[in-house]
Amino acid sequence: MITPIDILKFIRNKKYSPMTSAELADHFEISDVEYRRFCDLLQDLEFSGEIVKIKQKQYADPEKVHLTVGTLDCNPRGFGFVIPARADGGEDIYIRETDMGSAMNGDLVVVRLSSPTQIRKKRREKGRSASGQVVNVLRRANELVVGTFEKTKRMLFVAPDDPRLFRDIYVAEDVSKGAQPGDKVVVRIIEWPSRHLNPAGEITEVLGKEGDPKVDLRSIIYQFKLPHVFGQKVLKETKQVPHAVSEKEIQNRLDLRNKLIITIDPEDAKDFDDAISLEKDKNGDWRLGVHVADVSYYVKPDTVIDKDARYRGTSVYLPGEVIPMLPEILSNNICSLREGEDRLTKSVFMTIDRKGYLAKAEIRHSVINVTKRLTYKQATDILNNETDINISDEAVAMLRSTAQLAELLFKNRLARGALELDLPEVSLKLDEHGYVKDVEKVERDISHKLIEECMLLANEAVA
Fold this sequence. Notes:
The protein is an alpha+beta fold. The protein is built from 13 helices and 23 strands.
């Protein structure tokens, strides 16, 4: 198969004349079977700014035709800059509102510099950006927009929440979905703006009245394009994931279900990703175990769930709400290390000598059954010598030994030059309606530091 380097080498040749995708395919002798993949490769090069499409759908070297591909970053005052997609694409290019065409903030666009001489001039004049005009939009960033529905005598429109979308969006009454002035809405753009006309759209969802905390939260989710709904294909594949640990799989793993293992998490935690254990060997060295939920057993590479999780990247924590990276049946159930339930894990065992230095480490596929789930407050109270009848003496002893080890690990890290930033963190307390009723400082107490040291050492051991 042809490579991107082959294509770029050919297009950047001085003797090259712009060609269509079909003409390029003929040159590289691309078969009909490979043609679709070849076109995808051309598009990837186009979106990355390496090539551009000009008239007659021909591909060319951007520098030869004085074009630049980049992302439009608008300013609320009515202008913007295009940030070149290529790392060596030079400085940002200034775009007046009248030169934006149908482009909006965040769009991937093709820009023509105001004059070819500006390519050289912008390098000479420090502090001044070249100016240009958007000639094409390669990829739209604002198909759905969140804003406030408004009404005048003559028209209905949505004022976007994002000030960088500085044009109101017109809405016809028959596609307004019954929205009333002051409602927060989601609008789909169906006609993109031009030099003289605002965009037009249709309302897809009425979120509720502006000022309602729950409505504001939904507005933020839409505005920042947070993927908060799992698709049908993901949910269908999730149903096929086993909801219990099989005896067959247990036989293939290190069985730690009879070991004393605890979790320490915030009081309102719903998913428990990691657990710890601690023993002393016959030499008097510590054997620290960090046990992490084995998500990879349930989410195989390149499955629908895996691709969706990679797109999401992380779970998003908002006041009073969590948008999980994985469907809740995974994140809050079979992949959550809940007390008293068998769970598959990957365990990192670290042998630490009496001076607090890592002697050896090993990684094992394992199965655990968490003995006790503790909150940070419970763990801190125990370490401050308060009693809790719901926690066994063995768990208390292990917790105190782990705290001693964590203190030793911390001192060794500082001796190696580690930078300790004890930055304040706050927690918002909401009432039943979603309004903030209190703001509390989250204390980074001894139990937080204990878990931090265990996780840091585990990361060092596997790095």
